[in-house]
Design goal:
seven-stranded antiparallel beta sheet; alpha+beta; 7 strands; 6 helices
Length: 216
Amino acid sequence: MGISPCSFRTIARHGLGLVLAAAAFVAVFAIPSAAQNKGSCPEIIASLLPKSGAIRGGTYSASGPMGMGGGAADLPFEHPCVKSTKYPARVSISVTYYGGEMVELLKMQGDSADQQTILSATSELEKSKNPVKTENLAGGQIVYWDDKSECPAEGAAGSGTVNRPPIPNIRLRGVARTSNARLEITLEGQISTDLAKAAVAEVFENLKKADFEKAK
């Protein structure tokens, strides 16, 4: 069944939500302010974030057939050279829900929006001069670089190389999509690549199970 003229007008009004979701995400969720209430996170957004993370805040609002929101959580990582915090990495998400006939918009624009997100992220990450890697992960796609920095002498107990292993660092961007929702993700900080990927994969899997209809 085709989309009615009224629905096309609705799509035209809301279409920028798909294309510009990343811009809104960077402005609002990439670095949540210290003033945010840590416990102030809608259930639908909290359900997407990794269970091991300390939620830093989030928002979600729905208007008509669409919903948009995002949030962030700090991720734990134990390392003898990282003593200043138990949560040296942060994962941030933005998500857009498309209900009713708006699902057609996601079908029409989803592939191109995903490709543009990955291309833009790749261009951004390449500025670091580190090798950038792209992978498919849990039904989504990620692009990232990872490296290791030297452990400062004061950052580890004792002496010797055994107690002073290098510190892993990662910067990651990604995107995942279901039949009615699209999510963009950022992960940055001092955390192993395996743990970072596991956290992102968990978010992507959580997206598949999310019930946005109940979040209206």
